User: Fold 4-hydroxybenzoate 3-monooxygenase from Streptomyces guryensis.
Amino acid sequence: ESTTVVVIGAGPAGLTVANLLRRSGIDCVVLERRSREYVAQRQRAGIVETRAVRMFDSWGLADRVLGGIPYDGILELRVDGESHLVSDNDGSEGPRARLCPQQVLVQKLTAVYLADGGDLRFEAADVSLHDLTGDRPTVRYRTADGALRTVSCAFVAGCDGDHGISRTAVPDGALTAYAQDHGIGWLTVLADAPPPAHPLLAVSPHGFAAHFPRGPQASRYYLQCPPDDHPDAWPDARIWDALRTRLADPALPVGPITDRETFRLRSLVHDPMQYGRLHLVGDAAHIVSPMGGKGMNLALHDADVFARAVRDAVRDDDDTALRSYSQRCLRRVWNDQEFSHWLTRTLHDAGDAAESGPFHRNLARARLDRLLTSPAAAHAFAELMTGLDLTE
Ligand code: APR
Assistant:
């Protein structure tokens, strides 16, 4: 069997690559380890930034793949109980950011791709990559009923996340990993409870907390916790108590909790994002600390750069864009890593003197003060939120 591109993984990165290739008339096969039901349920990020909305719009896909609830681009920063609004309005024209939970985007991308006749194979086991530096790489896998299959292709898109097999197919030493553990844990909670008016980030002496809208009657919450905390340490009553204290809202409405998880905040970049005919896209290439909501948006950016580059190569026999794929993506990756790192440090250090020490607490307070008083600082923040800062 033969195709032009084999896409490994059907998360936001892989499904976006597949849809954009399909719209360019380029054949591809998507291999996903899990079932369709499993992939559709995975809960993660929730903001599709302005740049990414316009990217989908430019492909004629925005209305078909974006859902969720309307968003006016305003964030609330609550510092010791005092409320401040920050806007992502950077003065640019065009459609703007959407509050679209990742699983809604994934469900819609899957449906659109399949409705357009796309080839998507769930429950593909033991995927392995071969001859990545030759002219025709091959991808092997096993179907749900145990049959071995081989697909040859011109390019492989490794969109299988941080624990996928694509990156492990690259020989040791070919990629450099830049890793950062922020020494911070987060508890994330999903509940059927009323959403806030705006996504809310709160600084308090008891630690960072956040409250995000997930639907008309659904919310996602974050609570800073020790880096190796276990969700069992957080029974419902403790969660609501901590949220009321840190959000400085004694009347915070509660609701049934449907999910709780803990994780460590970390950042990771692999450079370059390509090896031979394999291109790493999204989490397979980089992890960004969740603060700032850039993880999914970076995956969407990589997918767009990759799909356009493949289109140039296949249609016009021009591989310039493919050769600069990594360089172009990494520029935005580091820009967003810096934003996310800055916001992570600012919102945690400003509240928690015990962890970072009083000097860093005062630095973080000064950064918040600047953001909330200087129009130039507010504009720079808006540019980083929308994702329109880099000349493309
Ligand atoms: N073979 C096939 N598929 C695989 C394999 C494998 N060996 N390993 C993983 N996968 C699949 C996973 O099941 C998943 O569906 O690859 C997909 C990877 O999806 P994500 O982890 O969601 O990564 P990505 O698409 O890059 O999404 C970007 O942005 O909001 C952040 O981290 C968040 O996942 C999000 C990311």
